[in-house]
Amino acid sequence: MPINGNRLFIASGHTHVQEDPSSTWTVKHNMGREVAADVLVHIDGVLEKILPQSQINTDTNTLTVNFPRPFTGKVRVV
After folding, report:
1. What share of the chain is helix, strand, coil (3-state, %, to 5)?
2. pLDDT by residue for the chain (78 residues), tens digit each?
3. pTM, to two decimals
């Protein structure tokens, strides 16, 4: 990851879109390493950033995100 001054630029990433409501999202990112993620869910028609119940790097290419109830939304993996 290149660093420029105080800014960190991430050259690669993956966005997962969850269109069907689910309390477990399986994110296949194929990045070959453990990842960090931002999770955004639809609440009352607005996309909100939240902390899910859990985020588990199932393997080096898959992230599992769990919620207490079904949601739709997005995950941005870096």
Report:
1. 0, 70, 30
2. 444 455 545 557 999 999 999 999 999 999 999 999 999 999 999 999 999 999 999 999 999 999 999 999 999 999
3. 0.83
